[in-house]
Design brief:
The chain is α+β, with helices and mostly antiparallel strands and 86 residues long. The chain is 19% helix and 36% strand.
Length: 86
C-alpha cells in the first residue's frame, strides 16, 4: 500500500513571498512601530535591514526618539512576527 504525502509544503524558496522587496519590509516595519508605540511614521529612521534566506524572514532595525527596535517579519505571510526593543 502506497502512502502519498499530500501535505508536503514547498521549500521557502519556492513559496511566493508577499514581502519580496526591502522597501516593502521597511514599510511594514515602520507601520508596526508606529502603531505599537504611537509614533508618526515620518519620525522613524531605518537603521539596518537584513534578509534571512533560510527562514525567509526580514529583520528591520528602526529608531525613533531615544528608542530602537528590531522588527522581524515573515516574508511569505507578510506579517510581523516579533518587535524587540534593543
Amino acid at each position: 500500500m502506497k502512502h502519498h504525502m499530500k501535505n508536503m509544503s514547498p521549500g521557502i524558496g519556492l513559496m511566493k513571498r508577499r514581502l519580496e522587496k526591502e522597501k516593502d519590509a521597511i514599510a511594514l516595519g515602520i507601520s508596526g512601530i508606529a502603531k505599537k508605540y504611537d509614533v508618526k511614521p515620518e519620525d522613524i529612521k531605518v537603521l539596518e535591514t537584513k534578509y534571512h534566506d533560510d527562514a525567509g524572514d526580514w529583520y528591520v532595525a528602526l529608531g525613533w526618539d531615544e528608542k530602537k527596535a528590531i522588527v522581524q517579519m515573515d516574508s511569505v505571510l507578510a506579517t510581523i512576527t516579533e518587535i524587540k526593543e534593543i
